[in-house]
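During the second half of the funding period, the structural biology subgroup turned its attention to how the target accommodates small molecules. The most pressing case was pyridoxal-5'-phosphate, which had performed well in the primary screen but for which no bound structure existed. We therefore specified the complex as follows and requested a full 3D prediction, including the ligand pose.
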Amino acid sequence: MIVINEHFLKLQASYLFSDIAQRINAYVQAHPDKEIIRLGIGDVTRALPPACIEAFHHAVDEMASDATFHGYGPEQGYLFLREKIARFDYQERGVSIDPDEIFISDGSKCDTGNFQELFAQSISIAIPDPVYPVYVDTNVMAGRTGICSGGRYHGIVYLESTEENGFVPAIPDTPVDLIYLCFPNNPTGATATRSQLQTWITYAHEHNALILFDAAYESFIRDPDLPHSIFEIPGADEVAVEFRSFSKNAGFTGTRCAFTVIPKKCRAFTPTGKRIALHQLWFRRQSTKFNGVSYPVQRAAEAVYSDEGRRQTRELTDYYLQNAALILHTMMRLGFHCTGGKNAPYVWVKTGCDSWEFFDLLLHKAGVVCTPGAGFGRCGEQYIRISAFNSRENVEKALHRIEKVFS
Ligand code: PLP
């Protein structure tokens, strides 16, 4: 008898986006003449930067000739890309990361989801609420949780991100071994200061714990005092792993390229308490299960670091940040308490009512789609997320309609 992994049965069907789609469909059928503006998605809308396209084309042409063709690539990714990442994302910011400590992948979703495979079943895990759902679901699949009741899985320590703590969770009362953090945050758009991150690094040292730091939105940071990497915090290289992506800075959501940084010093422990380098374990895991990112895509990602590429990606993220600023200012002017929108492409709006009710209100009265906060966790009740990933024209039109509803 072929028996399934029963932990999959614990997964809550992700009703969020199908519920949203159903409500939109119902609205469109009832109002076929009304135009809808979608500010609910986390996908980018603007084209790849010209520097990336040029490098992409050139690399595809290389594949057309025996002399320049590339077959299977190096397991950790091509050195030309890892060298650029180490230099521009880390060394030039005063952070000592070596190209050897970087693993190129096809997405931070896969890496943040797969990384838990390296750890024992029995570890205790701490996951923020609200949260990007991948961290929770992959631990459920792995059997590290009990059943879900009242929207929360038994066995997970939820780190509540609320208005009171500025959406940066505090150290939990219960000891934990694996901690997921994400800054700038999806969905709240909140950022963490050096001292807030230092608290977590100190905790990880004191409790022999590990931090998985998701920095997928790093490129939206503009405040010069905010850290761009967890490795800017002293002591982080022993207790943290960082995930970065080209999805949001360079529009690679459909092209697929990301990377994970595991300093050689970063450690975990065997059941008998012997230190073991996570770098070697992840290398073993990736070289067994992952085939790498295609050569043309890695060349396109490399172009992000050329002079032109850096200027063009900055222009892209500036564009979305200007959208975010418009959203933030409008919602605040209308009297809503908001976070995010300054160093992040998301604005987290406190609605003062049920988040689905507010979603329906925006859809029916303004023809604008947002994401109900409840879909990201219990602490998202009464909030909505508005995404800056759309054209300026659509954002302005949506905000104009929202203003008409509330003023
Ligand atoms: N991490 C966070 C917090 C995200 O919001 C997303 C995508 O929306 C990802 C990771 C996925 O990134 P990638 O496209 O590299 O898989």
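Two results from this model are relevant to the next phase. The two ends are 63 Å apart (CA to CA). The CA atoms of residues 121 and 393 lie 49 Å apart.
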